[in-house]
Amino acid sequence: MPKSIISEGKTTAEAISNGLKELNVSKDMVDIKILEEHEKRSFFSILAPRVVKVELTLKEDKKENKPIIKSTTKNIDFNVDEKELEKIRLKLDNFLSEFINNMDGLNYETSIDLDKNFVVVNINGENSKILIGYRGEVLNSFQVILNSIANKNSKYKVKVILNVSNYKQKREKSLEELADKISKTVLRTGKSITLEPMMAYERKIIHNRLQGNSKITTYSVGDEPHRKVVVSKK
User: Fold this and answer.
1) In the chain, where the domains are located
2) Strand 118-125 to strand 159-164: parallel, antiparallel, or no bridges (unpaired)?
3) What are the Cα distances from residue 231, in Å, to 7, 12, 13, 182, 208?
4) Is the peptide bond before 49 cis (omega within 30 degrees of 0)?
5) Entry pTM
6) What tens digit of pLDDT does each residue of 55-92 get?
7) Which of 1, 13, 59, 129 has its CA 20 to 30 A from that of 69?
């Protein structure tokens, strides 16, 4: 079944644009259905913000019968030389060694795994919360720094994935449990629930967890970095 989401905006164009960003696809890859556009407005609600809702459904590839999804690895060269990967690993290793040595009183163990075009950096230690921060904010910022170091003066582009004490795996599990709990509440009460602002990858976990629920629909509202997931009953 093709994936569908419901998106909101002040105008039809804005609602469609928000949906395309959420799906990470271009307009020609989706079917668009306007759900609410010319709603009747009373005298008392005329000053309230106008909301337009649209439903975006991914088109299917007729040959393979699979959703057409825009690649998220378009800037990654899939022919990275092994010697170049080793140079990148050494750059990261040197940086991490110096970084950790300058953190007085803290002891961390690091490992760097090379997997084709992905460089996985693992950091473990008793005080790993410092490198994670609130909701992974420090971890994500540190990952951006490691990506910059890895790709500086390199003719290849690789993606560095930072994993601190398996935080992302634990966060994914907790978000999936949250999604299950919220969906049950929505079904019981019939009322939509808007979650607190989340990063894009966290919102994606919620959407993916509930996309197979025939009684529940999810969509995102707001602008980054305050974009939120809404869980509603179909």
Assistant:
1) 4-72+192-233, 82-165
2) parallel
3) 12, 21, 22, 8, 12
4) no
5) 0.52
6) 888 876 533 333 332 323 333 344 566 777 788 888 88
7) 13
